[in-house]
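User: Hey, my collaborator sent me this sequence without any context and asked if I could get a structure. I don't really work with proteins. Can you help?
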Amino acid sequence: MAKEPPIMVVDKSEKTSPRRRAAGKASVSRRNPSTRKRSQGKRKNKKKLMRRWSVPSWGYYIFMGVVAVVFLLGFYYFFIRPYSYRWKPCYGTKAYGVCLPYGFSVHGFDISHHQGNIDWDELQKLQKSPFPVRFVFLKASEGGDFSDTAFVRNFDEARRHGFIRGAYHFYNPKTDALRQADFFIRSVDLQPGDLPPVLDIEVKGENEEKLRHDLSLWLHRIEDHYKVKPILYTSYKFKTRYLNDSLFNTYPYWIAHYYVDSVEYKGSWSFWQHTDVGKLPGIQEDVDLNVFNGSLEELRRLTIPFLNEE
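Assistant: No problem. I've predicted the 3D structure and written it out in structure-token form, which is a compact way to encode the shape of the chain:
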């Protein structure tokens, strides 16, 4: 019996021409009119959105111009206006690199380790200049455990060179107030003839009521130890917003207010820190300059009294 050749099955897929495919799609569309309506509706909605959001060229340029004006105004308000005083013409007396406030005869400065090495012999010459520099505040401590590395040397040099000296503490709202007060007491040995201790407060912390309570603890502890009312240092805005009450108004106020012709604070004040870009011989870095709101005799009366003066 003869064997028949094996049967081979070949799957020949029918090639579909582009014309047939188009015809097939058309037939599907004819068979599904709802699908065709949905696609037409989508195209119409897309055209409506394009017409709605299309902006003429002149509108685009107007929009970009408005954005540029807003940017320039914001840049001026936040970065130029606060410092415009630096570029104003000085119609008064210019000295120490700035225009000195009018009507004040007792000048001073304040320093920390940021001013680097100081030539106190050069600074001493300023006491006999046309605008004598009489007093200096020095940073002593910060928080509960930070001592300014330049304090001890500069504090001694200030007295040796005839300056009326004072010391300040930078307050940290996150650290216990009494711990900070005791740390300042251990760090600073104020003598008769020195200015009262200063509390430098610039940070509000998380709770305003707690801040006021803790600051009062610091002030009372310091006053009990040194037997003199401490000086409160802060900006006029900070004082007005957070410390403008009968308690804090009883302390001598050292106001920080830069690049203005006069103090805007309406209450009483003793010292005014009027610039942070002063230039003094003997100090290479910029330095804060201050004036005392009174005469030299009144400044001396503000200091810690000698025993025979009590």
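In plain terms: The CA atoms of residues 71 and 77 lie 10 Å apart. You can pass these tokens on to your collaborator as they are.
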